[in-house]
Every structure is written in C-alpha cells, then in structure tokens.
Amino acid sequence: MQLIDAEGQNLGVVPTDQALALAEEAGLDLVEISPNNEPPVCKILDLGKLKYATQKKAAEARKKQKIIEIKEIKMRPNIDTHDYEVKMRAIQRFFEEGDKVKVTLKFRGREMAHMELGMKLLHQVRDDTQTIAKVEAEPKLEGRQMMMVLAPK
Fold first, then answer.
1. CB 4 within 8 A of CB 10
2. DSSP one-letter string for 30-51
3. Is the pTM of this model over 0.85?
4. Collapsed DSSP state (helix, strand, coil) of residue 69
5. Quick one: pLDDT at residue 147?
6. SS3 call for 74
7. Among 41, 76, 88, 123, which is disulfide-ready with 2 (CB 3.0 to 4.6 Å)?
C-alpha cells in the first residue's frame, strides 16, 4: 500500500504489517484514504480528529445551502382589485426570498360554471409576475380548485 505519514510525507509503497507498526509506533491510526487506487493509499493520522473535521465540514455545507419552500397564495375567482394587489405584493416578497409560489383558486357553488374567470385570473397573475418569475406548472383544475406553480427566475 502507498503510505503517507502524520506529517504528510509520502513513504512510498510499504507492506501492510509495516504500515500498521509505524502507526502503532506514532500512537495514531492507519486510515485508508482511497481504496480504489492501485496500490491503495493509506495515511497515519488520528481517526477521531478526521471524523470531527468531516462532521464540521458537512455541517458547514448544510448551513450554506438554501432550502426552497413552496408558499401558497389562496384566491377566489371574484377577488377585488385591492385584495389582488395585496396578494401580488406577498407573491413578490416570496420570490425575493427565493421561494416558489403555488397560486390556488377555490371555486364554490355556481362559480364552477365560470371556469374561464379563474383561468383569466391565473393568466393575469402569470402576466403580472412575468419579469420576476417563470411558470413551473401551468394552471390545472383539480376538483374545485385550480392551481398554478410559479418559480423565481
């Protein structure tokens, strides 16, 4: 096996028993770094410190990544203009935070007879957010709800 000592010096190809003896002599562990190489590469180091360092690195990577959430905005087909503007401001805020937005239109009773009003409203939402968002899922009807998913550009 290819052996690297605790200081990072390459000791060359060494038999396994000799590598174990060197690790024992240094009071450290013999750790296989890359088993797929020919010959496999091993290093003399403290296994506890290695595990701690990899754990810290993984925690740091998790801390930096952004989890994208799907926020939901619920509307009705006959929404008033001011209410619509309030909902649009909320959608814009969600996009600034980097989240996706699911716009849901709920139909009640006789509103089901006028699906074109709901489709018109969802197209208006799409047109109003065209500069900051793209449509991820086109408007579709599921039962008494019509929904569309928008994602930030």
1. yes
2. EEEEETTSSSPEEEEE-HHHHH
3. no
4. coil
5. 93
6. strand
7. 41
Q: Which helix (H) or strand (E) holds 145?
A: strand 145-152
Give 10's Cβ-side CA count (13 Å radius). 5
SS3 77: coil
Q: What is the pLDDT of residues 26-52, one digit of tens each?
A: 899 999 988 888 889 999 999 999 999
Q: Which two tokens stand for residue 126?
A: 């799409």
Residues 119 and 46: their CA atoms lie apart, in Å, by 64
**pLDDT reading at 91 higher than 90:** yes
* CA pair distance 137, 150, nearest whole angstrom: 7
The model's pLDDT over 8-25, given as tens digits with 9 standing for 90+, comes to 888 889 998 999 999 998
List, in order, residues 6 or more apart from 114 with CB less than 8 Å away: 77
Selection from 10, 14, 18 nearest residue 1 by Cα: 14
Are 10 and 49 in contact by the 8 Å Cβ rule? The answer is no
What tokens does 83 get? 């209410």
Helix ranges (H only) for the chain are 16-26, 47-64, 81-96, 115-128
Q: What is the C-alpha to C-alpha distance for residues 90 and 42, in angstroms, rounded to an integer?
A: 56
